[in-house]
Amino acid sequence: MKLRFATREKPAGEPKMPRSPLEFWLPKITWGVALVMVGFAAFVAFKRMPGIVNAEAPLPTPTLVVPIPQGSGGAPHMPEYAPDSLVSVSRSVQAHTNKPARPMDKAQSYVVEKGDSVFSISRQYELQPESILWANFDTLQDDPQMMSIGIKLNIPPTDGVYYKVKKYDTIEKIASKFRVYVDDILMWPSNKLDFTNPKIEVGQYLMIPNGVGEVRQWVIPDIAKGRSGTLANSKILGPGACETGDGGSVGTGGFIWPTNNAHAVSGNEYWSGHLGIDIAALTGDYVKAADSGVVVYAGPIGGGYGNFVMIDHGNGYKTAYGHNNAVNVRCGQSVSQGQTIAFAGSTGNSTGSHLHFEVRYYGGFINPWSELQ
């Protein structure tokens, strides 16, 4: 059996209805929009296909991205080389530098020249002066006044102790002595020690980075006016000591510069191994009393000071003047502030003319910079 659908037959005489503009253009617009969308989709797909490059469009400039390392142990990855994206900064070349070129893991030698001091050499190599002393115990015996022209010094590569191994030394004993960890010694490259089985030999030098040694004070003891101990001082200190009375000039409590020239240091500054300052002075320059007082020593003395003068100011203060070319006062003499007491020179242990100047207060050493006017 066949199914038949009933259809409405248009009457023969019924007139045909005209089409509106909307019914005429709507299908065409719809098809046009559809064709545009299909074309755009095809264009996008074509551009994304691998290996397709638009020859007419300029290539974008690559951008360097440097990843930030994660964690303390990470290392940054090097970016890919892209010449067109690198920016260079020009810099003028400095042909001379004050710091000598030197390996940073090995000690080197330095021959002392005229005008050198432990402090000036340490400043030249950007080290602490104590590091220079500790590296040259056999030569200087921890005394910066033992410097002399022509001697050879060890210059450590870093601050710390450059140490010569002695009999019965062990890594553990050395580390404890200089207050560092054993690993600090083992890991220093120039020591060349086996981590698993470190062996050291007598006479071998080891760098103890950041090690701390002892600074021995090589200073003339206080000399006070008065009769007590005068004879003993003469025998121990030298011929410049004398018997002094209890009277005499008394200081004002203020100190002037003991030289007439520019107020500048030429040599050692005030530090733990040098409890005074070396004031710039030419041979024969006037040396003046920094304050009024009584001369308690005037003449040559040991300890590297050369021709030496000490003044007791009667108020707890004493001043000391070393390396003089000649002395212009006698022991026991009262002097006034600004009076010429000596002439500058380079006697004793000295590498050049200057005045070694100390300020003491009841036996303690004071940085002269804090007292000089």
Question: Strands, helices and their partners?
Answer:
Elements: H1 21-47, E1 108-111, H2 118-124, H3 129-134, H4 137-140, E2 152-155, E3 160-164, H5 171-177, H6 182-186, E4 205-209, H7 230-237, E5 277-280, E6 286-288, E7 293-301, E8 306-312, E9 317-324, E10 326-327, E11 334-335, E12 340-343, E13 354-361, E14 364-366
**General form:** elongated
Strand proportion, as a percent range, falls in: 15-25%
User: Oligomerization state of this entry?
Assistant: single chain
Low-confidence segments, given as residue ranges, are 1-7, 71-75, 81-98
**What characterizes the major β-sheet?**
7 strands, antiparallel
Structural class, by secondary structure, is: alpha+beta
CATH fold call of the domain at 230-370: Glucose Permease (Domain IIA)
- Separate helix tally: 7
Provide the CATH architecture of the domain at 230-370: Distorted Sandwich
| Distance linking N and C termini | 135 Å
By CATH reckoning, the class of the domain at 230-370 would read Mainly Beta
H/E element order? HEHHHEEHHEHEEEEEEEEEE
